[in-house]
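Suppose you are handed only these lines of text.
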Amino acid sequence: MLQDIRNQFPILGVEVHGRQLVYFDNAATTQKPLAVIEALDAYYRSGNANIHRGAHHLAAVATEAYEGVRRQVQALIGARHAHEIVFTRGTTESINLVASSFARRYFKGDGDEVIVSGMEHHSNIVPWQLAGATLRPVPFSDDGVLDLEAMERLFNGHTRLVAVCHASNTLGTVNPVADIVALAHAHGVPVLVDGAQAVSHMKVDVQALGCDFYCFSGHKMYGPMGVGVMYGREELLSEMPPYQGGGEMISEVSFERTTYNELPFKFEAGTPSVGDVIGLGKAIEFMQSVGMDALAAQEADLLAYAAERLAALPGIRFFGRAPQKTAVLSFLVGDSHPYDVGTLLDQMGIAVRTGHHCTQPVMDRYGIPGTVRASFAVYNTRAEVDTMVSALERIMPMLQ
Ligand code: PMP
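From them, the structure of the protein bound to 4'-deoxy-4'-aminopyridoxal-5'-phosphate can be written out as follows.
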C-alpha cells in the first residue's frame, strides 16, 4: 500500500548528493503524484484555452474542467454552495483578499482589532496589519496549546474578526477551531481559518467547524503551485467588495460606472491558472483514493515513531507537544544553530527546513532563532525516519 503510494511520486526516486532523497519538507510544499503532473502536461498539450465566454470547443471543455474542480473543492471541505469557493494563487492571496475586502466593508476605523493566535504564519498577520487592524494575539502554553480563556478576555467592542490557523506549520498544533468559532460567534465576531497545514492531513468540514472563511494552498496538498482556495460564507461574500478589478469580475463596464459579476466571479479577476486548478482536482482525487482517514493514520504513526526515535537522542529539544498535532516535528539539537543541522542533513540527502518558518512570534515566544523542522506526508516511511536518526547520530559529534 505505502509502496503503491510512493510509486506515484517520481521525485522520490531522485538522488541528492549521491544519496536517495529523503523528503521531510512537506509543510513547505508536498511533492506531486503522476496524476497531477500528467494532468498539467495533458492540459497544455491538448486542452489549453481561456475559460468562460468562449464560443469554441476547447474553451468550453476547459471551462467545464475548471468549474468541475470548484465542485470537487466544495465537496472536499463540505461547503454549502460551489459559488462560495474562490480560486486564488494560494493561502497568502486568499487571506490578503479577505483582509482587504472584509476591512473595506466591516472595519469602522475606530481602532479595529483582529484576534489572532500567537502561532500564526506571517501570512495571517501582515495582511491584517496592512488592512489597518491592531492585532490581539492569543497566548499559548509551552507545549503549544492555545489558551482559550485568555482568548475570551480579548473580545471587546472593537473586535472585528478572529483569524487562526487550523494547524500550526511550526508547532503542528491542531487548534480547536469549532470551539474558537463558538466563542467568537457568541461575541458576534466572524472567524477566518488558515487551513494551509490542515487540508492535506485531516477531513475538513467548514459547515461542521462553523467558520466564515477557510483558506488553503494547492501546493501543500499534492497539487500544483500557483493555485489556492478562499472559501467564504455566501452571506459575507455577497456583502464584500471586489479585491481586484479587471476582466471576469464585472457585469457591465462603462467609463462612468461598473457593476460587478455574481459570486464567485466577483473575486476572480483576470485569467486564472486554469491548468493548475485542473491539477488541483487530480490532487484531491489522489487524497481521496488514499482516504483521509488512512492518510491521517499513516501520518500519525510516523509522527509517533519519529518523536520516539528522536527523543532517544541526547540533547534534542522539541517545540510543540500539543496532544492534537499534525505530522510536524520542530526541534533543536543541543545548542547548535538549526541551519548547521539542516545543511549537514542535506549533505546526506535529507531535506528538512530550518529557520523561523515565517512564524517569528513563535520563535520570540521560546527565545530561539529558529528550529529544525521535519514535516511528513503520506508517502514518508519509518525507514526514512531511521535514515534521519542515523544521520543525526553521525553529525552530532561535528556539532558539539
Ligand atoms: N499559513 C500557513 C500555516 C502556512 O504554513 C503557509 C505556508 N508555509 C502559509 C500560510 C502560506 O502559504 P502560501 O505560501 O502557499 O501562500
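What can we learn from it? The chain has 14 helices and 17 strands. The longest strand covers residues 159-165.
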